[in-house]
Amino acid sequence: MKIKDITTCIEEIAPLNYAESFDNVGLLIGNYNTQVTGVLVTLDTLENIVDEAIEKKCNLIVSFHPIIFSGLKKLNGNNYVERVVLKAIKNDIAIYAMHTALDNSFQGVNAKICEILDLQNKKILIPQKNTIKKLTTYVPNNNAEEVRLALFNAGAGNIGNYDNCSYNTEGYGTYRGNENSNPTIGKKGILHKEEETFISVIFEKHNEKNILSALFSSHPYEEVAYDIVPLDNFNQEIGMGMIGELKTEKNELDFLNFLKKTMNAKGIKHSKLVGKPIKKVAVLGGSGSFAINNAIAANADIYVTSDIKYHEFYKAENKLIIADIGHYESEQFTKNLLVDILTKKFPNFAIILSNKNTNPIYYL
Question: Going by C-beta distance under 8 Å and a sequence separation of 6 or more, which residues neighbour residue 287?
């Protein structure tokens, strides 16, 4: 098995196209064609994680956070990032990270928090824009069904809870091939008129290569006429944060105690209690101050996240509770999620959950 096989599995859940523009995701160290001896899954890649990989004979570390975030100008071992990179290269260990690609996945970081908190009816809190494209093409009527099915099988035509979605109308097309042409229908040098079906389907942008491959392989024409345009629609399956509902509402203190215990938090910083029961819960793993207003707009009773600054707690404005449970605490179950995904795909391969706690914050 090669590194590419492992990363392809992860990217089915968290396509790298949906990572935030500031992020650094993908294979940070190593070669996709390297044979894998074992996979160590971690939240962060530190020196002790590389040591653990060496001990457990894993030559691929799958890490949520990227160890290389901004550019490296030198590799002298003068800081923890450089030391990790040097040790990984020296011991032929590859490092792969997906970070915000997994944050933006409907099955990713925030879905795992919802699972841990047993939230129902979950939805993306901040759906991502510009992730959907539209393909239009023109096909001879006799071939329209074959082309439609090929596009659907490649992942086109999915809208929310519906699939095989398309718009079709019939008309006719004209063309005339020159002396170098080899028309499937008609003869070169002669103007041809063909009854055609106009087919329009949408698809998620990470599938574009597969969609075009399906179009070209199923379409009968030598030259395929098609258009692809980006859409401004929000994608309800991709985006930051989630909001869901408790099965049974809880009073504020009961929920905060439940949250502390369930998320293994050493303590919770929170805004003023507002005196109403908790039913709708918004969550966002990692630093989530940017989504406070989104949680309010979604009518959440509480917003669970981390890294909230002093003045940002004022933004609650008695409309909800802001609960800061800690950065590590909000993302700690992500590595369990990744192990579950990889183990289901590769049940007979060494997928190892790191036993190291990489939280850099300590409490008295």
Answer: 305, 306, 307, 327
- 203 phi and psi, to 5 degrees? -155, 160
Neighbours of 152 (CB within 10 A): 18
Q: Each residue of 147-157: pLDDT tens digit?
A: 999 999 999 99
Total domains in the chain come to 3
Gyration radius of the chain's alpha carbons? 25
d(CA 44, CA 41): 9
Is there a domain that residue 82 lies in? Answer: yes
In this structure, the answer to whether residues 174 and 188 fall within a common structural domain is yes
Strands (E), the chain: 26-29, 39-42, 60-63, 94-97, 120-129, 132-140, 167-175, 192-204, 226-231, 234-250, 269-270, 278-287, 302-306, 321-324, 351-353
The answer to whether position 361 is within a domain reads no
Handedness of CA 116, 124, 329, 315 (dihedral sign): negative
pLDDT in tens, 115-164: 999 999 999 999 998 899 999 999 999 999 999 999 999 999 998 889 99
Residue 117 contacts residue 281 (beta carbons within 8 Å): yes
Reported pTM: 0.89
pLDDT tens-place string over residues 312-362 = 999 999 999 999 999 999 999 999 999 999 999 999 999 999 999 999 999
